[in-house]
Specification:
This protein is α/β, with parallel strands linked by helices. The protein folds into three domains: 5-95, Arc Repressor Mutant, subunit A (Orthogonal Bundle), CATH 1.10.10; 104-168, no CATH class; 177-300, Vaccinia Virus protein VP39 (Rossmann fold, 3-Layer(aba) Sandwich), CATH 3.40.50.150. The chain has helices at 5-9, 12-33, 35-42, 48-55, 59-71, 90-95, 105-119, 122-128, 133-137, 144-148, 152-164, 166-174, 214-227, 249-261, 269-278; strands at residues 46-47, 75-80, 83-88, 185-187, 202-206, 233-238, 282-287, 294-299. The two termini are 44 Å apart. It binds N-acetyl serotonin.
Length: 300
Amino acid sequence: MEVSKQELEYPQKLLSYMDGFLISKTMFTACELGVFDLLLEDGGPLSASTVAERLGTSADGTDRLLTACVGLQLLEVKEHQGEALYSNTDLSQIYLTKTSPRTLYYSVAYYSQTIYHCFAYLTDAIREGKSQYEKAFGISSQELFEALYRSEEEMLKFMQLMNSIWNICGKDVVTAFDLSTFTNIFDLGGDFFKDPIPDADLYILARIIHDWTEDRCLELLTRVNKVCKPGSGVLLIEALLNEDRRGPITAQLYSLNMLVQTEGKERMPSEYVSLLESAGFKDVQVRRTGKIYDVILGRK
Ligand code: ASE
């Protein structure tokens, strides 16, 4: 792809990529400090000094944070008798307040408190080709999820992250296939390599397969296949790479996240088809939703 002469003179795109994490962290901070929650609860627009007082933060820091949020279109400002008053935009009110039914607050919190720290070691992850979770958090463990679930609090944070994305992508994912023939559906969680798997017509594995190596994926899918009756199915929900792995960029970036945090990766449709077929499933179908998460259905 040719880069325009203008871009070579002044590399806008590179500059915006450099600033990318400044933007992320500014949004994370406003969320975590409760700026959007305060503006929702209070109802009326508030001055920076009132926000600072209510949050117990510095006047100057708060003023700069709110100003930057206006620049990011996460807040609106209007002048009232010479004072700047801030309120939520529709977008931040719907997605960044804790109590909203469509909230992404818990995704933001996990990005800020976990993924951000793991990505500090992305260079090492690429050099070594393995997870940096231990380096980032000082937690050594044989099993990945022993670390991710190291306390009740950490487990809850992870679960809230895993849940919150369905506020956005859930509907497309569950309607990608006609699942009306499956009456008894089981969403696989817990210690699924060890625990007995209950009887069901359809097993959902949402963002499970991407955490594991081929061997472990096959082990798990074979375990599921064993308890399936003929006609029963398995539904994988994952961020699919294109078949040439040249996109989508979200799946490519998530695959880097799987490298820094887990022993897995994001895969192409053909890789999921082949895993499912090797585990004994057939009639495997793939549906893209156009959003982050796509769907793969296999039957016994
Ligand atoms: C996992 C999913 C996630 C394990 C660790 C994880 C996510 C973040 N960390 O199964 C959610 C997906 N988001 C990204 C950025 O990969």
